[in-house]
Structure to design on (310 residues):
């Protein structure tokens, strides 16, 4: 049970709470830089570079990055057009030649042959068994 | 040799700094005063980042920060090798009786005259508004010890203030 004296004293404490002077934003930033330097010096901190934050804080860098990105898109688009033109012209040429069509059919035949399922073959089963026994033997050694 | 596992982006670190700076400076000011407060603040944040990976996510981040700030504050006090000379007390008493020192300043100086343990519980309970449970968690002390320490701290501080001329307390 609190006495009146206790209440009086507690209210004195709360009313006279020592207040620290506020810190300006410049001092706050300077203190943060000092803290970072100290942390890095004592190896307490390893920071990852935050590219997006860095860009946001540096407008010129941000503009340069945007310019490079736009230039990249333009170059890619023009290159794709060139590629497409070349492809179209080649396709037109190949379609016009009956020999080339025949050649393409031959290639397609070999491709289909080579992709036929070969796992069912006896050779595959034998090879797999041999491999597994070698593998087990290696670990048993 | 201690190696750090922490690897945070500068953005994350700045966020913690911005959120906790006022709390850290406030508690340090009430423990060590304005002198060396910037050095102590730096020390607190270095310790926060050094041990951030050890912070348990289910505990209270605020009380964890308080614990670090209080420990750093106490370290600074110990290093300072305070001299509680009698004439210092007398000067303060005269200033209080003449009314040249405000109650707020007098209270801060009186806190400097009592023991560190008593000062810390007064600061955390009355100035930082921490509950007894939060103080117990921050200082890693049983709640009974916190209650008893707070009781004695109030008595010692009140006696000190009375001796300094605040007879109405």
């Amino acid at each position: 049970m609190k006495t009146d004296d206790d209440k009086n004293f507690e209210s004195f404490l709360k009313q006279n709470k020592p207040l620290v002077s506020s810190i300006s934003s410049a001092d706050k930033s300077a203190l943060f830089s000092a803290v970072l330097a100290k942390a890095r010096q004592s190896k307490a901190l390893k920071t990852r570079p935050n590219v997006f934050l860095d860009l946001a804080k540096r407008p010129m860098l941000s503009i340069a990055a945007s310019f490079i990105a736009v230039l990249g898109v333009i170059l890619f688009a023009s290159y794709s057009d060139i590629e497409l033109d070349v492809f179209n012209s080649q396709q037109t040429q190949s379609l016009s030649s009956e020999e080339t069509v025949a050649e393409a059919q031959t290639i397609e035949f070999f491709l289909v042959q080579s992709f036929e399922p070969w796992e069912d073959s006896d050779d595959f089963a034998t090879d797999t068994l041999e491999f597994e026994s070698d593998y087990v033997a290696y670990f048993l050694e | 040799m201690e190696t750090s596992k922490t690897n945070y982006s500068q953005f994350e670190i700045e966020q913690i700094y911005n959120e906790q700076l006022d709390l850290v400076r406030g508690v340090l000011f009430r423990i060590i005063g304005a002198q060396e407060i910037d050095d102590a603040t730096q020390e607190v944040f270095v310790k926060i980042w050094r041990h951030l990976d050890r912070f348990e996510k289910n505990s209270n981040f605020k009380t964890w920060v308080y614990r670090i700030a209080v420990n750093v504050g106490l370290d600074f006090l110990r290093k300072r090798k305070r001299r509680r000379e009698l004439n210092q007390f007398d000067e303060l008493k005269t200033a209080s009786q003449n009314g040249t020192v405000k109650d707020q300043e007098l209270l801060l100086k009186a806190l400097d005259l009592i023991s560190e343990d008593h000062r810390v519980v007064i600061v955390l309970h009355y100035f930082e508004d921490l509950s007894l449970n939060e103080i117990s968690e921050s200082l890693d002390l049983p709640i009974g010890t916190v209650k008893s320490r707070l009781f004695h701290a109030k008595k010692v501080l009140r006696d000190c203030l009375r001796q300094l001329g605040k007879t109405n307390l």
Remarks:
- The mean pLDDT of chain A is 72.
